[in-house]
Amino acid sequence: MNNIKKIYFDHNATTRVDDEVLDAMMPYFQSDFGNPSSGHNLGVTGRQAINQARKQVADSVNVLPSQVIFTSGGSEANNLFIQGAAGYLKNTRIIVSAIEHPCILRPAKEMMQNINNKWDLRQLMVDKSGYIMMNDVDKALTEFPPGIVSVMLANNETGVIQEVAAIAERSRKFNALVHTDAIQAFGKIPVNFPSLNVHAMTLSSHKIYGPKGAAALIIDKELILKPQIYGGGHENGLRSGTENVPAIVGFGKACELSQLRINKSSAQIKKLRIHLEKKLIEMGAIIFGIHMNRLPNTCYFALRNIEGETLVTNLEKAGFAIASGAACSSATPGKSHVLDAMGVEPALARCAVRISLGNSNTFEQINNFIVALNTIVKKLNRISSIMTEEE
Q1: CA–CA separation, 23 and 163 (whole Å)
Q2: Is this prediction's pTM over 0.85?
Q3: Tens-place pLDDT, residues 3-60
């Protein structure tokens, strides 16, 4: 049995539920377990808890509670917008960036296969740093006016922050419906829905020290979407199904705590990232998007000739949990469509690993990681040298 205490460096994949969040959730598993659609006291208690959580989420991004539509996760929220918006539009063009999460790219590609309402898909190019090229945005908009545009606020692999408000301004001139996946950005940098100038935005609970199984689609008051789940008419008719009260309560509490802590925690985490990257550069590491405006916690790097999967496995044995490739994609583990879009050579892309820091990480952990990494790299290089000699 492995008794090494794990140091967790994979916060972009998910986060540990905060103690205060868990405390807020607990009553709704047993004592206050009522269905929030029921008219008795237990049901009313559940409904009031959801209403409070809706306000907490709304306040965190400066919208009205009525603009918050709860879903089971970010993937569902993204699909609700893409497919829901398309449901009331004639087949036209959908524009997404080439570095979007699969839960945007896949439904967008599926729309191209719909024989009854086939859409044209245009993917926006990014430069070598992972930044969406604004001249390509203008080209895509003018060559074929779109019905839908979706670009993420911050990339889950590189952490590069995109100019969503500028893209939205351009897109609105063509009467496109604009959406941003803000899942990775939310809780790490300030996110203000009105300032982004979009029609819809996706948030997720488990990225901000809340529980899995809760997320939200934030919508403009005038936006009309076609529901993807029909039933009892929950969530203003956009997402039917009995609400997951404990998870929604936890999501609301996590949003509240996030806004109280964001300035202090982000500043501290950025110091850790800068320290980490200084040490990595001394080792000869290549850091993707290093000169761009990035999330304070995200470092995506590669050490040449050291396979990312091999490095992740060895670091796991040494007590460190990090990610190789995109943690949210199981279809092609270790292969990054983001690095491919950035034009990174395949041999280097296979060496990529991601560290995403969180509130519990420390300078001591970073230093211990660098020591372990140096040891592992030297070992792997010795093995590679021996194999080369034998050949």
Answers
A1: 37
A2: yes
A3: 567 999 999 999 999 999 999 999 999 999 999 989 899 999 999 999 999 999 999 9
- The CATH code that applies to domain 19-257 is 3.40.640.10
Measured distance CA(222)–CA(124) in Å, rounded:
27
Asked if 145 contacts 177 with a C-beta cutoff of 8 angstroms, the reply is no
Q: What is the dihedral of CA 208, 214, 215, 219, to 10 degrees?
A: -140
Annotated catalytic residue within 103, 255, 299, 328:
328
User: Could you give the C-alpha distances from 180 to 165, 201, 346, in angstroms and in order?
Assistant: 10, 5, 29
Q: Which residues pair with 357 in a beta bridge?
A: none
Active site residue 328: yes
Beta bridge partners of 201: 180, 218
Name the CATH superfamily housing domain 7-15+262-390: Aspartate Aminotransferase, domain 1 (3.90.1150.10)
Transcribe 140-152 into DSSP letters: HHHHS-EEEEE--
Burial 70-84 (b: 16+ CB within 10 A, else e): bbbbbbbbbbbbbbb
- The sign one gets for the Cα dihedral 187, 189, 194, 198 is negative
Alpha carbon distance, N-terminus to C-terminus of the chain? 36
Unique residue bearing structure tokens 């967008």: 108
